[in-house]
Structures are given as structure tokens and as C-alpha cells.
Design brief:
The complex is a heterodimer of chains A (428) and B (174). Chain A has 428 residues and is α/β, with parallel strands linked by helices. Chain A contains 16 helices and 18 strands. Chain A is globular. Chain B is of the alpha/beta class and 174 residues long. Helix content of chain B is 28%, strand content 17%. Chain B is built from 7 helices and 7 strands; from the N terminus they run βαααβαβαββββαα. Chain B has a 7-stranded mixed sheet with strand order 4-3-2-1-5-6-7. In chain B, helix 4 links the parallel strand 2 and strand 3. In chain B, helix 6 packs across helix 7. Chain B is globular, with a radius of gyration of 17 Å. Chain B starts with 5 loop residues before the first strand and ends in a 12-residue tail after the last helix. Classes of the chains: A alpha/beta (428), B alpha/beta (174). The interface between A and B is large, with 55 and 43 residues. The complex binds iron/sulfur cluster. The site of iron/sulfur cluster has 11 residues of chain A, from helix 12. Iron/sulfur cluster binds next to helix 12 of chain A.
Chain lengths: 428, 174
């Protein structure tokens, strides 16, 4: 008998092999994959798709597998955005799109909220933060409008099989430290140019994390410059999918994981116990350091919003700091819950009242200021601390505004004092 | 496919999509949006750039959002190619898909602003005509050259559809 050839594969390789109908794939392979689910939003989707579909004279490859979310221009702030939203609704009707979420929240949070993502799936999102959904053990990456149009028409796209980089976090993070701090730390520590790589998170800290927190880790794979991120599914993953109306088999736990003896591109190990709150200074997520390095920096606005930073857990973290305290008088604290259901849940649990009693101003669910649209934009010279994922020049308004990125704890603490402050001072 | 030389515009590392196509201007028509391209880092670029010019930049070009307008603006301004030490994944795909050649090559030090350049994508040669230097790069995947040669993914798809390579694509619903 011959020797067994090692065919150990990473989770991502298994998914791409399945989607390209191959027994196995090797990093660097140029493959055509079939797409299980395609998502686009009001900015990247219909308005870019329709003229192209009309020019080609074709419809959607499978309207059942298309998800459209209106989240960027919502609610309309002027006639132009109203027209964009109107066109989205017409597109959904004309092309028979199965899954449409109109002003219900931000796409990346909407998808898991509706049980649309499953382990082993290969999904394409018309947005750079699509890696968010990798928390559910699927391969989901961001694509531009032309790629998405081609996917919408053919159900296929091309990929160069990425290498997998394993990033492990062990131990329980201390009070006031969360997934966002991990990501701001990683933006500095492993950098923002993890090109042609998928980040696979693991370790006991990740196992202990809520799905909301795991989404934060995967979301910011975009800032790491990685193709996407993924987390092997566990019972928590399956429970979340089922609780949100999705169907998933128990067998996916065994099937959709990296083989034990697989050779990763590299493995990084970090200790969550020694992590302190982190901040990224303007104008770059990789421009990060311990919060203590930035303590005392004055702020005008505190923003709790975005797919990455206004999920239920995020609001809860902010509320734990703001409970019984108030926002400093010359500071504005704006809260835009990621989805309408998030608002609903926070209203029921009392988290919302804690925030508004402290002085927070509630904004609609949607991308808003994170995308430089809607409400809460910054004036020249304004300084903002934000739970969003990017602080590029000009992104949240004037090009000469300054945005610090921090966790919901850190943003809440800064809203109380008017300057960057260690949130642990407010957590007993 | 060699062109006569275009002028080189130099940019640094981490040129992001908000600088290429600012989020708060995304409602503008494409050509108007393009007139703001890179304004935050070079106020005269969008005004003075000529069709056939080149961008030579540093690492991680096009990081940030998936917005195609970032690549589209450069295409509309007539850029012949973007040469950068490395590209963010989505920008690279967007550029190729729109028929804008994106070549990963570390040549920032080999060009001065305003140098004349020439590129041959099939042979993999970039020339600095001003200094007389030549820079080689590995040929692109044939599938990507096919997209570029067709003028972008949409023209290629149209060609393939016309050739009935996608016989069973559903028709537009009426
Ligand atoms: S909230 Fe911000 S990061 Fe998330 S999808 Fe919207 S614009 Fe992108």
C-alpha cells in the first residue's frame, strides 16, 4: 500500500473546494466558484445593477439567493436619496428578489438576524465589511458592483484561493475590554495589509465570546486588509442560527472546521488577559495604541453606530458605563442601533432608556455618519470618538475632522467626561 | 499593446477609497464625483490629469470601502494604469472589472512626478521614458487579461452572452 497523502485542509479551503466542485484546493489556485447567497445594499446594488442587467438583457440568476438591504441612504434625507431608495424598491419588485430589508438596519447585522448565513456557505456581499458574517463559519467576502452584477447574473465568480492565517486568543479579557479592543490591537500588531489571507480566529477567548462579539472580530478583517475572516462553528453558532429562523444541521460542526493537522500560513497566539482598552487615532485604524496613550484628548462628539459597533451587545456595553451617569454638557452622544430589532430588544431590556436617560440622542438604524451620510456628520475641526471601524480622513464629514476609534465602553466613557477616558474607571 | 507615454502622478501608501471617492459626495453623478478624486491629498490632480496618465503609488492602494466609484473615477479621468506596491483586494478586482489595469509593482523610487511612462500588460513591462529604466512584472492570470482586453467584465459578459456561453441565463422578467 502506498502512503496516504496528507490532504489536510483549512475550513476556507474546504468551502472553496466544495463551491468549485473540486476535491481539494491549494492556496494560489485560480478557481471559479458558485455563490450560495449574494447580498447588496442600496448604494452598491440595484442602482448599479439595473442599467447593466438591462444592457445585457438578463435577469437575476436566482432571485431566491439574492438579499437586498436599504441601509446607506436611510431614511432619505433629500430628494436624491429618496429617489435611490425608490429605485431599490422598484428593482426588488421587478426582479423578484426574495430577501428585501427596507430600512430595517445594516446589511451585515441584518443577515444573521434573519438566519441567512450557515457554516460551509460561500456568500458574496456588495460591501467591504461582508467578512462580518464569517462569524457563522461561512466564507463571505466583499465585492464591488461589477463583480456583484456578474454574480447576480451568473451565480459565479473567480477567486484566488487565499492562505489561512490562524489568530488565537486565550484567556478571559478583563472588565471593560472587548472584541473591538482585540481588533484595534490587531490592526497594529498584525497590520492592515494581510493581503491574500483569510484570518481564522480561535482559542478559548473566542469560544467564550457571544456571536455579536465574534461578528466584530470578523467585520474588521476588512481593516486588516484580509480577504475575509472566519470562525469555526460551535454550539453557540448553531443555536444563534436556529433562534433567528435559520436551518442548520448538527453535522456541520464536524464538517466545517479546519483539519487538526493542517498547515496554516502562520499562527499567532495572544493572551486576552493582558489586553487593555485600545484606541485608534486619526486617520487610520492601524494608528492604534493603548487607550492610556490617548487619555485626556478632548472630544466633541461620541458616536455609537455601525454594523460593527451598535449591535445589541455593543449597546449593552455602553449602557453599563453610562448607567446613572450623564453625557457632559458640551458633548453630543449619538446612538444609531445597527438594526430596528436591536432597538426593539434594547427598548425591552431597558438598555435604551439607560442610554437616553444619560443624554444619548437616538438616530435611525442604518449606516448614517459611518458612511458619511445621514445624520451626525462632523464639521471642520470636530473631534469624534466612534465605535465604527474606519476613521479615514473625510469619512464622517469634513475632511479636517478627527475621528478616534474605540470600543462601546470607551466611547461611552468619553461621552461622560468629554475626553478620552479609561472606561474601567466607570465599571465596578 | 504599447501606448505613447503618459505622465506619472506619484502617491504614497494607503490611498483609501474615501480619498478616491468621498462618501459624502457619492450621490453626485460619476463625472462630477471624479472631479473630486484624490483632492484631499493632491488638490490639482483631478483638474490636471490627462487621459493616458499613470498613477504610481505605494502600499495598500485602494483600501477601505467596496465602492466601485473609487476605481471608476480613475477610469473616467482616463488613467492608463495604476501601478502600486500592493493593492487592497476589492479595489484591485474593481479596477480590472472596469478595464483599468492595476499592476502590483514597487516602483515609487523609480519615478518622479511628471515622468513619462509606458506599459505593456501582455509582456509585463513598465518603462520610465524620462529616465530610460525598464521594470518587469509577472504576466497576469489569462482570465484577468481577457477582462482587460474586453474593456472590462461587463463588455466581456455581454460578449459571452452574445456567444450563448450562458445559454440558460434567465430572461428579464416583464
Ligand atoms: S455601518 Fe459603516 S462599516 Fe457598516 S456597512 Fe454601513 S458604512 Fe459600512
Amino acid at each position: 500500500m502506498g502512503l496516504l497523502v496528507s490532504s489536510a485542509q483549512t475550513l476556507v479551503e474546504k468551502i472553496i473546494a466544495r463551491a468549485s466542485s473540486r476535491g481539494s484546493v491549494t492556496p494560489g489556485d485560480f478557481v471559479t466558484v458558485s455563490v450560495d447567497l449574494a447580498m447588496a445594499h442600496d448604494s452598491s446594488g440595484p442602482r448599479r445593477w439595473r442599467p447593466r442587467l438591462e444592457a445585457l438583457g438578463v435577469g437575476l440568476w436566482d432571485p431566491e439567493r439574492v438579499v437586498i438591504v436599504s441601509d446607506h441612504y436611510v431614511p432619505a434625507v433629500d430628494a436624491a436619496s429618496a429617489a435611490i431608495l425608490k429605485d431599490v424598491r422598484a428593482f426588488v419588485r421587478d426582479y423578484g428578489v426574495r430577501h428585501f430589508f427596507d430600512m430595517r438596519g445594516i446589511s451585515h447585522t441584518i443577515m444573521p438576524e434573519n438566519g441567512l448565513l450557515r457554516p460551509g456557505m460561500l456568500a458574496a456581499g456588495g460591501d467591504s465589511h461582508s467578512p462580518h458574517g464569517g462569524a457563522f463559519g461561512c466564507f463571505i467576502a466583499g465585492f464591488g458592483a461589477t463583480d456583484m452584477t456578474a454574480i447576480a447574473v451568473t451565480g459565479e465568480t473567480w477567486l484566488t484561493v487565499p492562505q489561512t492565517r490562524r489568530v488565537e486568543w486565550d484567556g478571559a479579557p478583563g472588565k471593560g475590554v472587548c472584541a473591538k479592543d482585540i481588533m484595534l490591537f490587531l490592526c497594529r500588531e498584525i497590520g492592515t495589509e494581510n493581503h491574500n489571507l483569510v484570518i481564522e480566529y480561535g482559542g478559548s477567548a473566542i469560544a467564550a465570546m457571544s456571536m455579536d462579539e465574534r461578528m466584530t472580530l470578523c467585520n474588521m478583517a476588512a481593516e486588516l486588509g484580509a480577504d475575509t475572516a472566519i470562525i469555526e462553528p460551535d454550539q453557540k453558532t448553531l443555536a444563534h442560527i436556529r433562534a433567528h429562523g435559520g436551518e442548520v444541521e448538527d453535522a456541520s460542526l464536524k464538517r466545517w472546521r479546519s483539519d487538526a493537522n493542517v498547515a496554516y500560513e502562520s499562527v499567532f497566539r495572544f493572551d486576552a488577559r493582558s489586553l487593555s482598552p485600545q484606541i485608534a487615532a486619526p486617520h487610520y485604524p492601524g494608528n492604534s495604541g493603548a487607550l492610556s496613550d490617548f487619555e485626556g484628548a478632548k472630544i466633541d462628539q461620541a458616536y455609537i453606530g455601525a454594523c460593527v459597533g451598535a449591535k445589541y451587545n455593543d449597546l449593552e456595553m455602553a449602557a453599563s458605563v453610562l448607567k446613572g451617569r450623564s453625557v457632559k454638557s458640551n458633548v453630543r452622544l449619538l446612538v444609531a442601533p445597527a438594526t430596528a430589532k436591536t432597538t426593539e430588544r434594547a427598548a425591552k431590556s431597558g438598555v435604551l432608556a439607560t442610554l437616553t436617560e444619560a443624554g444619548a440622542i437616538l438616530l435611525p438604524s442604518g449606516c448614517g455618519a459611518c458612511a458619511g451620510m445621514g445624520h451626525g456628520l462632523l464639521a471642520e475641526g470636530d473631534v469624534c470618538i466612534s465605535t465604527t471601524n474606519r476613521n479615514f480622513k473625510g469619512r464622517m464629514g469634513h475632511k479636517d475632522a478627527f475621528v478616534y476609534l474605540g470600543s462601546p465602553y470607551a466611547v461611552a466613557a468619553a461621552a461622560i467626561t468629554g475626553e478620552i477616558t479609561d472606561p474601567r474607571d466607570f465599571l465596578s | 499593446m504599447t501606448t505613447t507615454g503618459g505622465r506619472v502622478w506619484l502617491f504614497g501608501d494607503n490611498i483609501d477609497t474615501d480619498v478616491l471617492a468621498p462618501g459624502h459626495l457619492m450621490k453626485l453623478p460619476a463625472r462630477e464625483l471624479a472631479s473630486h478624486c484624490l483632492k484631499a491629498v493632491n488638490p490639482v490632480f483631478a483638474k490636471d490629469v490627462k487621459p493616458g496618465d499613470f498613477i504610481v503609488a505605494g502600499r495598500n492602494f485602494g483600501l477601505g470601502s467596496s465602492r466601485e466609484q473609487a476605481a471608476e473615477s480613475l477610469k473616467l479621468l482616463g488613467l492608463r494604469a495604476v501601478i502600486a506596491t500592493s493593492f487592497a483586494r476589492i479595489f484591485f478586482r474593481n479596477a480590472i472589472n472596469l478595464g483599468l489595469p492595476a499592476v502590483a509593482l514597487d516602483v515609487s523610487d523609480a519615478f518622479n512626478e511628471g515622468d513619462a511612462a509606458q506599459i505593456d500588460l501582455h509582456k509585463g513591462v513598465l518603462k520610465n521614458q524620462t529616465s530610460g529604466t525598464e521594470h518587469l512584472f509577472p504576466a497576469m492570470a489569462p482570465a484577468l487579461l481577457e477582462i482587460l482586453d474586453a474593456g472590462g467584465l461587463m463588455p466581456l459578459l455581454a460578449k459571452q452572452l452574445a456567444a450563448k456561453k450562458l445559454r440558460d441565463a434567465p430572461r428579464h422578467p416583464d
